[in-house]
């Protein structure tokens, strides 16, 4: 059945890419949006650890070559912004995630599935702008409340363990995006969603974007939960801390120790707040579900996820 599905997606993508190639760039975006929506919808419904995700990623890379082909056929467009950079594709990705995170019913299993696809796409460098959604999700999961951190742990683990090196690289480079970088038709307020959550701000994280201090704050959240009375929580939290530490050491820098010392020091000077705004509506999910959502044990148990990803 999956082979049939893959063939159907391939045919669908070919049709829309052909359609896009026949039109000027500003009119071809709708075809690309349809392709991207297909990927995200399929990814939501494929088990997070299913190798089929790799096939989807390969197909995504193939469709990305559309831009190369297009510009070779239309030299006059070589100086225009790539249709794959932002535009409506960012809207599609962000909307897919927000529908799951802010749903009033349990969606953790589907979040795990989509995270497997999205984090892999980010990790292998298909589109760096996926980092915007990654930063937003990690902020929602780790910078709002202990309850949400525990509930969304399976998804957060997939993000960090799949795209950890990329996320750490962004953190060291203080990667950020501005609204000016994004097409005016994109409804996502890129600057707003990069603002640290309430808990992160209380912990001294003020930079609006990726930063080493923010990475260390995320790690400290897992270190705290590694002391939890619940054995399963201790297990996955400890494993995640170990993974993040391994990513730190892979870079071979002493900057991580320096950042940790600065973060843990009560006397360390706080960064000046950059473009300070009120904290985001960080309790939106909790207001919708009253904290009663539980992960789907059939698809995404914390303990089984932790064991699987550690091999």
Automatic annotation (TrEMBL):
This is Uncharacterized protein. InterPro entries: OpdG, Oxopyrrolidines_Biosynth-assoc. Residues 264-311 are annotated as: Disordered. It comes from Sclerotinia nivalis. Residues 300-311 have a biased composition (Basic residues). Residues 264-299 have a biased composition (Basic and acidic residues).
